[in-house]
Write the structure tokens for this entry.
Amino acid sequence: MTTREVEHEITIAAPAPAVYRLLAEVTNWPRIFPPTIHVDQVERNGSEERIRIWATANGEAKNWTSRRELDPEALRITFRQEIPAPPVAAMGGTWIIEPLGEDASRVRLLHDYRAIDDDPHDLLWIEAAVDRNSRSELAALKKNVEFAHAAEEVTFSFEDTVLVDGSAKDVYAFVNEAHLWPERLPHVATVRLEEDTPGLQTLEMDTRAKDGSVHTTKSYRVTFPHHRIAYKQVTLPALMTLHTGQWTFTDTDEGVTATSQHTVTLNTDNIHTVLGPQATVTDARTYVHSALSTNSRATLTHAKAHAESRR
């Protein structure tokens, strides 16, 4: 089997320990890396952890499990895909963060990989995917770390919750069955839902705003029957540079707690264009929060009615 090795690097205007921390906290990855849809920490044992990653490669959504070893002293993180997605036979590598003075660092991203049966076409496909994703990851890492302080002010999370007198399975089913939303939700005009890989959905939909205008959005969703659906929106409105979220359904003694959680980063460059020359960051935050909450609460209210009618 032919093992290919490749290295990408970038210089970041931030201290090496800060860069390491951002990479080590894997749940932040959907915020940092454009291809990453969702990450779960499956298990943790000292410096070793097992994580499951859902991401796009060459426009296709894939998922895999990796083992990571964290070395905060050496500022190194090694990773190895446990069960790679075809056509990859093996994939691993190392993040190496090297200090360049107090306020700068060099990040080196090493990969080694093999293709199933050494297929030349597949090797080219993997090479292209690794190259594209590595450049994208490093550029996003640089941007995210360097503007971390600015982004903290314009990144926020919130949630809406309803209590349902029904089963978590029925509430989950309502959110999972997005192809039925045009019949079930007044604010949804059309839906295109694909699920080529079980548990991994591509959701495109046209939604109606309060003013009657129609907006098209595309998201990738990862489903965990019957308790959670995580998603990342990839076509974003003008006021957002990031939108991720989760629907969670929890059985309690009182009933099912159904929650819609959002994390958003505002696009400050577009605030005046969208909301007018006098608009502030606070105005934009209120506007985005209200728009997302309105749709979430509508969906949760209809899901509650659906689940309670099936009791």
Notes: The chain is about 30% helix and 45% strand. The first helix runs from residue 16 to 24. The CA atoms of residues 159 and 261 lie 4 Å apart. The longest strand covers residues 60-71.
